[in-house]
Fold this sequence. Notes:
The complex is a heterodimer.
Chain A lengths: L1 E4 L6 E2 L8 E8 L8 E9 L2 E3 L7 E8 L2 E2 L5 E2 L3 E5 L8 E3 L2 E9 L10 H11 L3 E4 L2 E4 L8 E3 H10 L14 E4 L6 E2 L6 E9 L4 E8 L4 E5 L2 E7 L2 E3 L2 E3 L3 E5 L4 E6 L3 E7 L16 H10 L1
Helix pairs in contact in A: 1-2
Chain B lengths: L1 E4 L6 E2 L8 E8 L8 E8 L5 E2 L7 E8 L2 E2 L5 E2 L3 E5 L8 E2 L4 E8 L10 H11 L3 E4 L2 E4 L8 E3 H10 L14 E4 L6 E2 L6 E9 L4 E8 L4 E5 L2 E7 L2 E3 L2 E3 L3 E5 L4 E6 L3 E7 L16 H9 L1
Antiparallel strand pairs in B: 1-23, 2-3, 3-4, 4-11, 5-10, 6-9, 6-11, 7-8, 9-15, 12-13, 13-14, 16-17, 17-18, 18-25, 19-24, 20-23, 20-25, 21-22, 21-24
Helix pairs in contact in B: 1-2
Amino acid sequence: MKIVQGDEQPINDARNVRTGDLKKQYILTGEEGSLGNFVFGLYYQTGDFYSPRHKHNFCQWRYQISGDCSFDKNGKMTPGILGFFPEGAHYGPQTSDEPNVVALIQFGGPSGSGYMSQNQVYKAFDGLKEFGHVDKGVFYRNEGVPGKKAVDSFQATWELANGRPMVYPKAQYADPLLMDTNNYRWMPLDGVPGVEEKSFGTFTDCKMRSASYKLDPGAKLTATGRGIYFVLSGKGTLEGGPFRTYTAILLEAGESATFTASETSEIMLFGLTDVSRIRTPLPHDIDTAEAEEELAEA
Amino acid sequence: MKIVQGDEQPMIGGRTVRAGIIDKQYLLEGEDHSLGNFSFVLAYQDAGSFYSPRHRHNFDQWRYQLEGECSFDKNGIMKPGTLGYFPEGAYYGPQTSDQANAVAVIQFGGPSGGGYASHDRLFKALDEMQAFGHVEKGIFYRNEGVPGKKAMDSFQAVWEYLNGRPLVYPKPQYADPILMNLADYRWMPVDGAPGVEEKSLGVFTDCKIRAGAYKVEPGAAFTATGRGVFLVLSGAGTLEGGPFRKHTAIALADGEHATFHATETAEILLMGLPEVARIRVPLPHDVDAIALEDLAEA
Lengths: 298, 298
């Protein structure tokens, strides 16, 4: 269990591999090197953001707090929209022409591809320099070094860190799922007076849950299961300390924590993968033909 | 509980409120006029004959592609083994097929309480509407001089004729259809059910509509529970004292259960239905300006 007051975390200028200005407020991180690793933060974009249509080998939750983000044919995220972006599913291009704030979680998905921490990325990136160089997002191997001569630099970094070809997982949903949380009903939570739930769904074979909870003053919500509970509004106490807007708590499988509201509160659950259900990559999982195809496409 | 042998149901030729030829086997239906009413059919489309324009419904759909392909344009292509959840209120299509194909389709009353009109009522209304208009490529055109909008989505026209009020489209809980390729999910053991594995595909909407597939080894028993339709995709065995085989289907209501005993390896698809207690009961004030807005856009 980890509890963090989001409003106490610094907002830093962020390196951005895309176009546009971006500031990040990191709130929670997982266990580096684990299949269920993640990073959670608030991202502040100051307009003119652009990223081309692409896909990842990890999953994402995106919750739009203010402003709009366009994902072209995948739709537009306006405040109150929650998006689940499955590993392996193409999305975008992503653009925004106005300042906007999004709560973003990137996390290791069902395929067992994991999620590299910034430290892992930078360490591997430095390691690449021993046998090649990076120019404009492409890694070029030195003459005589085995392997593909030119490859996307993130992919080269990932492959060095993981010691195997990067194969994009098959997407369990063909496209991102955008959920306007305003279109869901508050429904009473059985056996929990003063608490209502909006149930947004449970996704993938790793059963990632998503919901929000509304607590009346004096009501208690006992949060359970692996995921991040993020306070959108209200205040009260949480495990002996205060909670307020942007307080976040990480729970691991089997853990629980109780919110006691002193004001009407709204709390969002971004579920993480059930670690016991994440696929453990095995040597025979590396489909050579598919890996080569992906590498050739990169 | 209702059990039906799909292969014993007659093939009924061709009626559709859209364009093209569809043969249908009617397998199961719910209780007409109830909020949770549904219709489950196997639909067989000729090559190239089917077309429906981009549209939406005020009910939910499951579509499972058995043979051939169906294109939904920007929403993707359904190939054999793809399950699609088409939420009420979400636009999809245009839908076309340039090859013969077979699809299992469940249309059912969704979370909004819009309900679902039975085929009998629907086609009776369509027959009556021929007196003042005609359908072409999924659009109902009123005859010259007949009051009302000249051209309207044919389903919407039928619904409005049948219900005597404007059709109010629910706000979608997911912006787009959700397409799931079953081959991209893992079989995982089901706790306490030796010889049974599950592909957990998801739980959708605030009515907790489930989807999954179950593989049952010879000699193993799988107890199905909860509101939904279980369709046998392959294998054989016994079900509640009778036989099951390919395209045997069972509908369970809330609180009901039934046990499949496999004599051959069997694969069973669950297409869940909303928990009736969670379906919104429509209120008079729900018909408001939104309806007029929808009519203006139609």
